[in-house]
Amino acid sequence: MINGERLGIFARTFRRPTSAEVAAEVKQAGYALAHWNFAAIGLPTLADDLPDEVFTQVRAAFDAEGIGIPSVSATYNMIGPDIERRSAETKRAARLVRRARLLGAEVVTLCTGTRDAQDMWRAHPDNATPAAWRDLRATLDVLMDAASDGRVILGIEPEPGNAVSDAAAAARLLSELGDDAPVGIVFDPANLLTRETVSRQARILTAAVDLLGPRIVGVQLKGFDLMDYQLVFGLLERVVPVPLIVQDVTEADAGRVRSDLLRRYSEREDSA
User: Taking the alpha carbons of 107, 254, 157, 187 in that order, is the dihedral positive or negative?
Assistant: First the structure.
């Protein structure tokens, strides 16, 4: 069942000077959950050098508003061509992963990266090379050790411009890592579609859930003009209930999007 208790939003939708102000805005918009990113309070995403007290202050601020933090972002370019920078950022991400539980988070989301040196979301022809895959696996080895230490799951989101570009690549990675790896999938249905393939979304998304369903640890919702969300909600009923996090909306639209998603789910239930 999809209900308000599972609906969340990116905390950085509401950029404010303090975590208490961010939490108040999330509550005002009606969300029960927030995907945390230190960018929400003007800090780097990989805020590894902060004292533990800052992490616990963030959690306390959201606890005070009755809002959960199921996940936190540690996104950076995991296969970036600058080896020195990649290594330094991997060490920073590992430190953040080990402390994610201080926020209350159980999942740390990642960007599997690109060979593009300027934009970690932009596709590059070398992303599909064996060397890029080896670099991804080597980076993941470091982060999986941190995840095991921190008792969290790494959330891999298939992104069209990244090394894990689609459901098939995600399934390959999971198979190579094994069932015991502290790695799961962040399912974003909009990432698996284009304007050209949206008419075939039932087939594409059903196949993706068939491949990845047991390892889905979170869902991100966006592309509201493209998606058949009654289809998406139906597919999600096949998997273990996980947080549903709204992405890429403005502050002004946040409350309306929440109401619209709940309405669409209710309409699906009524028509079933």
Answer: positive
Give pLDDT tens digits for 221-249: 998 888 898 899 999 999 999 999 999 99
Cβ-contact 133, 163 below 8 angstroms: yes
Q: Which H/E stretch holds residue 57? A: helix 52-64
Q: 66-108 pLDDT, tens per residue?
A: 999 999 999 999 999 999 999 999 999 999 999 999 999 999 9
Task: Determine the Cα–Cα distance for residues 62 and 91; give it in Å rounded to an integer.
Answer: 27
**Rounded Cα–Cα distance for residues 95 and 200 (Å):** 41
Please, what sign has the CA dihedral across residues 228, 110, 247, 9?
Answer: positive
What count of Cα atoms within 13 Å lies in the side-chain half-sphere of residue 93? 27
Matching CATH number, 4-271, of 2.60.40.10, 3.20.20.150, 3.40.50.1970, 3.40.640.10 = 3.20.20.150
Domain ranges, ordered by start, for the chain: 4-271
Which has the closest alpha carbon to 144: 181, 116, 104? 181
CA–CA dist 162, 197 (Å, integer): 19
Element (H, E) at 70: strand 68-73
Contacts of residue 195, Cβ cutoff 8 Å, sequence gap at least 6: 226
Provide the 8-state DSSP code for 161: T
